[in-house]
Amino acid sequence: MKAKDTIVLGIESSCDDTSAAILKGNRILSNVIAGQSIHEKYGGVVPELASRCHQESIIPVVQQAIEQAGITIADIDAIAFTQGPGLMGSLVVGTSFAKALALSINKPLIPVHHMKAHIMAHFIEDDLIDVPTFPFLCLTVSGGHTQLVNVESPIQMNVIGQTIDDAVGEAFDKAAKMLGLPYPGGPLIDQHAKKGDPIKFTFAKPQIAELNFSFSGVKTSILYFLRDQKAINPNFIEDNLADLCASIQNSLVEILLHKIKKACSTYAFTQVAIAGGVSANSYLRHRLQEWGMLSNTKIFVPKFEYCTDNAAMIAITGKFLFEINQVGNQSSTADPRLIW
Ligand code: KG4
Ligand code: ZN
Fold first, then answer.
1. CA nearest 316: which of 14, 112, 145, 129?
2. From the CA of 115, how far away is ligand 1's center (Å)?
3. What span, in angstroms and rounded, lies between the C-alpha atoms of 167 and 147?
4. Among 95, 154, 183, 268, who pairs with 334 as Cys (CB 3.0-4.6 Å)?
5. Is the pTM of this model over 0.90?
6. Could you tell which of 172, 178, 304 is best to mutate to test the pocket of ligand 1, judged by most ligand atoms within 8 Å of the CB?
7. pLDDT confidence of residue 1
8. Is the dihedral of CA 182, 186, 190, 195 positive or negative?
9. pLDDT at residue 108, as a whole number
10. Å from CA of 308 to ligand 2 middle
């Protein structure tokens, strides 16, 4: 007789999305995400406001996830939550809620590392999507991280390269801000770029050793280029928005691809995955797939809903940790700088 599939409630609150998901076995039954539009007018996430919004959303979001999954609280076998890294005030809301619920229903509590969870999103079962086999290379690209990870198992993940300054998501958002686009600008650059020429303008290419990245030079080069062009034509940005977006996106994606190729030749990886918010970028996905075909490398891109922050990835990671009894307890605390 087949053992009952484990049901895990996942909770994510590391930044500005409150999310809850129900996982059964390796399949997602529900994944509810409440965004926070309040930050738009400030051009970035305001931590105190994020924390307050999480407080308002956490109970309705969890309730909705349970309802949509068609289960009851009593069916939950374990509760996984994002312990860090992230914003302290935001993490505390999810952590406290998870601890209180675990205590009240007497179920295990599983602290999860947010960035490792982005990678583990690839193991959510879906009829249309293949799952990578260990070991594989994963490029994790979000608003706060840019890393190349040698993923040997769900618990053995080694960072083999990372940014020495800005994260690539931050570079997308800062470039978008220079173009007058609202926060978060990454998805808007992606959209405008579809109608633009990726090689119309060129920006600085960083020369960084080994498998590390740098994005601050590109950012400065975009800033000075726009300043000089606006001195000649005050409408330069409006007149060239699509080409600017396409060219900026191309510069950032080229940096990522260059290091992926280098990692594959150094470590002989035959499978490459991408994870994190920037893995939703259509140009990165396209260029990577194109290179995968040419180089005989198998490429894994997550479903769009599992690219940006979500609780489904927390639930699947929690499930793997639960199986090896790597669980927490009521002493587990939120850790904004949780180590890898
Ligand atoms: O993983 P995520 O949702 O949150 C963090 O853990 O940081 O990543 C958010 C980042 C933001 O910088 C956002 O602009 C970027 O992901 N992003 C994109 C796209 N969608 C989200 N960047 C470029 N193109 C996109 N389509
Ligand atoms: Zn994230």
1. 112
2. 13
3. 9
4. 95
5. yes
6. 172
7. 45
8. positive
9. 98
10. 6
Residue stretches of the chain with pLDDT short of 70: 1-3
- Residue reference for tokens 């890294």: 85
Cα(84)–Cα(112) distance, integer angstroms: 7
Q: Quick check: 9 and 62 in contact, CB under 8 A?
A: yes
The structure tokens listed for 313 are 């990835």
pLDDT of residue 127: 85
Render pLDDT for 22-51 as a digit per residue (tens, 0 to 9).
999 999 999 999 999 898 888 888 999 999
Ligand 1, residue 284: give the atom nearest the CA: 24
**What pLDDT score does 2 carry?**
55
Instruction: Using alpha carbons, select from 288, 270, 271 the residue that is nearest to residue 279.
Output: 288
Strands 27-34 vs 78-84: parallel, antiparallel or unpaired: unpaired
> What does the pLDDT read at residue 4?
83
Cβ of residue 84 lying under 6 Å from some atom of ligand 1: no
Residue nearest to atom 23 of ligand 1 (CA): 186
Nearest CA to ligand 1 atom 8: 277
**Residue 246: its pLDDT value, please?**
98
Q: Please give the structure tokens belonging to residue 190.
A: 């992606």
Q: Which two tokens stand for residue 165?
A: 């300054």
Question: Ligand 1 mean position to 1 CA, how many Å?
Answer: 43
For residue 121, give the nearest of 305, 246, 260 by alpha carbon.
305
For the Cβ of 249 lying below 6 angstroms from any atom of ligand 1, the answer is no
Cβ proximity of 80 and 314 under 8 Å: yes
